[in-house]
Write a structure and sequence with these properties.
Helix content: 10-25%
Oligomer: single chain
CATH superfamily: Ribonuclease toxin, BrnT, of type II toxin-antitoxin system
Strand content: 35-45%
CATH class: Alpha Beta
Largest sheet: 6 strands, mixed
Radius of gyration: 13 Å
Order of helices and strands: EEHHEEEEH
Number of helices: 3
Strand order of the largest sheet: 1-2-6-5-4-3
Shape: globular
CATH architecture: Roll
Number of strands: 6
């Protein structure tokens, strides 16, 4: 039996979790580490949108990391924890959404 381990941490009352195997795949596929992806939740101009997939309720957060990269982060909320699913540099469409919404 092969069970993929999860990585968990808390920061400022917020919990984060992700699958370590998927995190490695995300680096290979998109060039974004989940540690950096979690930083977008502290962008004061963070934007969100629905990212549901095949009936699973998912959200997308669009914001800047501390490395000044604008990222799209797909996640699900589990109680008081954010489970990261995937992250990548923003598309042109998500960049426009981030820059135009609320300004």
């Amino acid at each position: 039996m092969n069970i993929d381990p999860d990585f968990r941490f808390r920061f400022e009352e917020q919990g984060y979790i992700w699958n370590v195997v998927k995190a490695k795949e995300n680096i290979a596929n998109h060039g974004v580490e989940f540690e950096e992806a979690a930083e977008v939740f502290f962008d004061r101009f963070l934007r969100g949108r629905d990212a549901s997939d095949n009936g699973e309720k998912r959200e997308a957060a669009i914001g800047y990391s501390t490395r000044r990269r604008l990222l799209t982060v797909v996640y699900v909320e589990e109680d008081d924890t954010i489970r990261l699913i995937s992250a990548w540099p923003v598309s042109a469409e998500d960049r426009r959404f981030y820059e135009e919404e609320g300004y």
